[in-house]
Backbone:
């Protein structure tokens, strides 16, 4: 694919991201999901306006695309993001089975304007006992039963 | 805090998770967010019923709590999850400023019943060129301008 092909979709993401910042919707981030050359989902960071810390551009675009195609599986689609996805969004990209990622700014550049993406990547790569966030494992009599019930469920939809 | 104190909240999460599995809402996962000893948010995995790959229990609980308190910042609150959070949910926990995590089943046990949490943790810890997911950095003339606009915005809400 030519640079022009990719820029067509990035242009949409950047335009939406500028509008989002100017209308106080959220941070400077936009994303577009494309399948077979067509846009199937759009998203901008909406953390502030939605009071939702999970409302990052890529998450919003994934939700939008899934709603539009009425499926939780985006296999074969591509995401264009104005910035390297944070670990929440990157994990969501894996869960959604998106096949390829294109991005412009980096997590280091995002850190330079005050976002914690890089810090969260570092935290996740540590064993839980070394993280800043206290992490406690508890026993519960239902834990094994719940997983067994899923495993034995005959009409389950795997995802 | 005593084990009884924690189990009070875990009991709620497990009960909701069993109901979610039995009604084909989603996978076997539930979460509860607690502040000052009171439940402020609930969530169950709703990936299947919502057609939303981001609708994990912890994400749903974070969104519910933020809606209930009308704020994107959950500082000082605690999350109880029936299972160790996947990297998407753990990152969301960081973005939401949740202060502590309690969980029962582990990501290894989740892998044993078919969930990819452990695999995604492994992928995220790799430099992007070693991941299974193709990752491409592109240049775009708006990238630096967008970040600069955020940086210079005088009425921005940091998050």
Residues:
């Amino acid at each position: 694919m030519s640079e022009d092909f990719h820029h067509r979709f990035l242009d949409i993401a950047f335009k939406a991201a500028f509008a989002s910042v100017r209308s106080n919707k959220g941070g400077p981030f936009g994303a577009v999901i494309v399948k077979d050359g067509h846009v199937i989902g759009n998203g901008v960071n909406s953390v502030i306006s939605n009071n939702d810390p999970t409302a990052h551009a890529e998450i919003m675009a994934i939700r939008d695309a899934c709603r539009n195609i009425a499926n939780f599986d985006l296999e074969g689609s591509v995401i264009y993001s104005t910035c390297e996805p944070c670990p929440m969004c990157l994990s969501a990209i894996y869960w959604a089975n998106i096949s390829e990622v294109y991005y412009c700014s980096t997590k280091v550049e995002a850190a330079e304007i005050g976002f914690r993406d890089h810090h969260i990547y570092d935290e996740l790569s540590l064993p839980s006992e070394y993280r800043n966030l206290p992490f406690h494992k508890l026993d519960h009599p239902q834990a094994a039963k719940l997983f067994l019930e899923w495993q034995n469920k005959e009409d389950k939809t795997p995802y």
Residues 3-22 of chain B form the longest helix (20 residues).
